[in-house]
Amino acid sequence: MAAAHPRLTLTACILASSLAFIDGSVTNVALPAIGKDLRATPAELQWTINAYLLPLSALLLIGGAAGDHFGRKKLLIGGIVLFTAASLACALAGDLTLLLIARAVQGVGAAILLPNSLATLGHGFTGEERGKAIGTWAAAGAIAGAVGPPLGGWLVDAIGWRSIFLVNLPLAAIAVGIAAFYVEESAEGELPLDIPGAFAATLALGAIAWGLTLWSSHHALGKPAILGLVAGLALTAAFLWIEHRLGDKAMMPIAMFGSRAFAGLTLLTFLLYGALGGVLLLLPYVLIQAGGYTALEAGFALLPMPLGMGLASRFTGKFTAKAGARLPLTFGSLIVAAGFGGLMLVEQGAPYWTSVFPGMILIAIGMALVAAPLTTAVLASVDDSHSGTASGFNSAIARTGGLIATAIAGAVMASAGAGLITAFHLGAVVGAALAAASGAAAWLTLAQPRPR
């Protein structure tokens, strides 16, 4: 069924999701300033990111299912309000502990608003218009991500890191106003909520992230790290057992993996977005700490990637609706891998245009080919009644990849000087390998569409 106010529905969904996109890109640029002000170690700075990614990764699934159950409009507005309140708490945090708590609440809010913004689009548009709307949504999200780093860098240099969290307030107010009056409610009735599964997933991801963070920041696999990893794997097994027992009532129905294409999309998402999250967390940190960049300069250094994605994603959304997702997902991932390889040119004192820019342009082109086709392919793999669950699951996998990459990135962040550059080069090589593997997953698991 088409939305009564399609443009306003699309606007509300874009503004809502932009909150999460801007927050992620802005915080990466602010990490050195946060560490200096709150006297945080590299391992503690990792948790500034992970405290947000952990609930976001674990609760996206149930956030989408809750929208299917209670109503996507209600959950969309509720998620925006919670995210905004937590943003204000981040700006007012007096120490690192309070900041981490507020960041975790931000993650809960994002886990509610993100899947329901996309599911609202899936319900409000049909056919080719759905592909266009999703392409526009992805493009706007990329543009929001493009604005984030330079805006955040300017705010950090001119006002202070706390101001980056206040940017969310006016955007949230506009999004809530439009959603309240113009977005139609949609739900699928009495769908069950998988509380045990959500609880097990949260504990599993938390234990794994904790173990990996200890391992990477201390450059040694000590007993606490081993304990965290073993506990995380055991809790992951418990989560899978719970989901198997619940069957179709699970927030991650195991039967979905009977589809070769769905399994391939899941693997691609985990590998590609894990690589992207790790490298784009490290790049501004390395440029500021070892390259002598200001926060503003580091923010502008990231600009080509999201800006290029924003300009091209709408067109790739239209192309995918007609030609299928296999080719853009395969070759887009391989181009991203080449871009990560290009970041090997980053050196102390090297000019931006010959060190950072070539790799960022390639990553931009590759991700423009991937972003909209991936979202469209995932939504097309399930029926409308589970659109929230499907979008939540795919977003959760992307954030889980970023969470694990961030936990491992401490091995790079703990280095200094020339050692930091060397460690970053190793991270770029690993990212390139993961991106190439994601392209192979797309090629081997997705079918070429039949001619009409």
Topology:
Layout: H1 6-38, H2 42-70, H3 72-92, H4 96-124, H5 127-158, H6 168-182, H7 195-218, H8 223-246, H9 260-289, H10 295-301, H11 304-323, H12 326-342, H13 352-355, H14 357-380, H15 387-408, H16 410-413, H17 418-445
Helix pairs in contact: 1-2, 1-4, 1-5, 1-6, 1-9, 1-10, 2-3, 2-4, 2-7, 2-15, 3-4, 3-6, 4-5, 4-15, 5-10, 5-11, 5-14, 7-8, 7-15, 9-10, 9-15, 9-17, 11-14, 12-14, 12-17
Task: Report what the structure shows.
Helix content is 80%, strand content 0%. The chain has helices at residues 6-38, 42-70, 72-92, 96-124, 127-158, 168-182, 195-218, 223-246, 260-289, 295-301, 304-323, 326-342, 352-355, 357-380, 387-408, 410-413, 418-445. Helix 2 packs antiparallel against helix 3, helix 2 (42-70) packs antiparallel against helix 15 and helix 9 packs antiparallel against helix 10.
Keywords:
Growth Hormone, Chain: A; globular; mainly alpha; 2 domains
Q: Helices and strands: which structural class?
A: mainly alpha
The arrangement of helices and strands along the chain is HHHHHHHHHHHHHHHHH
**Helical proportion?**
over 70%
* Overall pLDDT metric: 83
What is the radius of gyration computed over CA atoms, rounded to a whole number of angstroms? 20 Å
Q: CATH topology of the largest domain, what is it called?
A: Growth Hormone, Chain: A
CATH A-level architecture of the largest domain = Up-down Bundle
**Major sheet description:** none
CATH top level assignment of the largest domain: Mainly Alpha
Low-confidence stretches: none
Distance between the termini: 24 Å
Under CATH, the homologous superfamily of the largest domain reads MFS general substrate transporter like domains
- Give the number of domains: 2
